[in-house]
Design brief:
single chain, 194 residues, alpha+beta, 5-stranded antiparallel sheet
């Protein structure tokens, strides 16, 4: 989403969900009397591989540029906008320079209707595997590492702050279906903890 207008830029792709991996770096004390205390949400990283293929679009008479537009859109997520670069060059030439970089886009990873996650792209690797006669990529494999942003990463006024809390509430709600307050199902009926 553009930081100035909130207008979305959507890069649609298909992937096999079983190739998506998630890792969590727990934030908390690991020893002493504070052992097990959580000091904040875990740092979650999602890694996935996308396969972008222009074959279907080319059969329908579309996609003359292959998957190049999708690759450019993905690359744009991790590259400062040229207009911002040119503005900074003009400011530097006039003797002034903006200290803080302009805000970047808010990147949302939409993983089904119940999980819309604000993320920062930590790594992007593109392997172009097939090209047309004009050397436009028609098949590409993209590996992405996304760091999921939490409420601890964003100020309360940030457009994605409420979304981070909504995702946490959704996860807690989904988890409620998998937990029990009784040990009967695990240890058998009548089991007691001392």
């Amino acid at each position: 989403m553009d930081p100035d207008t909130s207008a979305p830029t959507v890069v649609a792709f298909q992937y096999n969900p079983h190739t998506l991996t998630r890792s969590f770096e727990v934030q908390g004390a690991t020893g002493g009397p504070e052992a097990g205390q959580l000091t904040g949400p875990p740092r979650e990283t999602i890694r996935l591989e996308l396969i972008l293929d222009a074959a279907d679009a080319l059969e329908e008479g579309k996609g003359q540029d292959g998957v190049a537009p999708s690759l450019a859109a993905l690359q744009g997520i991790v590259t400062p906008r040229s207009s911002d670069v040119l503005t900074n060059l003009a400011l530097a030439a006039s003797g002034s320079l903006e200290i803080l970089p302009p805000p970047g886009p808010v990147t949302l990873f939409v993983w089904g209707g119940k999980r819309v996650l604000p993320v920062a792209v930590a790594e992007l690797a593109i392997s172009e595997e097939a090209h047309d006669a004009s050397l436009n990529p028609t098949l590409a494999r993209v590996t992405i590492a996304l760091r999921v942003l939490s409420y601890a990463d964003l100020p309360a006024g940030h457009p994605a702050h409420a979304l981070t809390l909504a995702n946490q509430v959704g996860a807690e709600t989904r988890a409620a279906g998998a937990v029990s307050s009784s040990l009967d199902g695990v240890l058998g009926s009548g089991a007691r903890l001392l």
